[in-house]
């Protein structure tokens, strides 16, 4: 064996290197803890132009050979300029601070490195994931035949849900009149709202549906799917010889935090015999809310549901799942491989998760949620989510009363969409002032907010997922935004000197 090979073995994790494992991980944990303790703003405002040369100059073929040196380098290229979701003035996207029990789970699952394919790779982890799926399905109310699987996130969950809906729709095209798959795919349609997630369109493309397969229906004044338009769209599809394979309702739109009228949508889908999928990637935190579970009424009638624990259960990325009312539909993702999950194993009743997933190798991400529930309990997680929803309601009221700002629809969750309106500014200048304010705020690193478009105009968005954030924190950020926007508007409105 070469000297390099011999030295390399010292880096493997096994019974002979447990002390090295303890030491190396402790050094890493200490670096992160020290950095978090130093953080006084959610970002540094670093630009790609500033950071790219540092990363590009690193010779990956020449190892440093030293843990501390590697951690020093990691600090320079990442930790120093990382975006910190735990900071009270990170108010941008659907990124949550994480709970410590989940971080413990992350450390444990990474070291053991189970793969949630088959029983002989995961043993108890398979049963733990299944238990969490059953627990979530029960919280939703999907019934005794429900099942599901953990996924990488809402986009994957929505993709798999549409795969199952597509196959079920094709199966129902009966008897000898069933068209060939290409013809069937051309006829299939998905209906969602104008405020639904882009992953629905992406799923349609990946599943080989027609370019116009996704039909969007308008929303009402509260940015919720209009059920009258939904019913009309389904009727029109039938008259045109098209088949609605799924309706996608949203329980927590990304932009507005609104929840579609689930009971009414379920009625329409039941009457039409259409698969109802509820994208609750954001709103799933309501499943454990002590006060707001009723906002999800109707979700129990869905054929499939997306949940993202890494949004409103305060879990590290990734921790998500797809749930289905009828576990048998998961067979549409099954493929038997002799080396992995042969039919003989299925006949013997040996449990596995690969038959339910569109992934093969897959992390034991369920471990994080397991430890969270066993240490904190679901009521504690729900109480944290309630706090950010309460905060958003308070911020909305304050913005609505503040003449400097215009506020959009009131969220049912923890999102606030607003914009600064400089006095006397035309619509173009309002757009430019708000775009500038967001960019200037990000460049300063003092706070981060998101942006979106509402009816073609540029608006700003607060996504409040940190229970440590206070009204005073948000007020301070709003003052910064107003200052940046007002200065930009004054400069833009000032005539250039004649020279």
Automatic annotation (TrEMBL):
In-chain residues carrying the UniProt-annotated modification N6-(pyridoxal phosphate)lysine: 311
Mark the transmembrane ranges: none
For molecular function, the Gene Ontology terms on record are: aromatic-L-amino-acid decarboxylase activity; pyridoxal phosphate binding; transaminase activity
Listed SUPFAM superfamilies: PLP-dependent transferases
Classification via Pfam families? Pyridoxal_deC
* UniProt record, GO biological process: carboxylic acid metabolic process
Keywords, in A-Z order: Aminotransferase, Decarboxylase, Lyase, Pyridoxal phosphate, Transferase
Cofactor dependence is on: pyridoxal 5'-phosphate
**InterPro entries recorded for this chain?**
PyrdxlP-dep_de-COase, PyrdxlP-dep_Trfase, PyrdxlP-dep_Trfase_major, PyrdxlP-dep_Trfase_small
Q: Does the keyword Protease apply?
A: no
Lineage: superkingdom: Bacteria
GO CC entries? cytoplasm
Family that this chain belongs to? Belongs to the group II decarboxylase family.
This one is known as Aspartate aminotransferase family protein
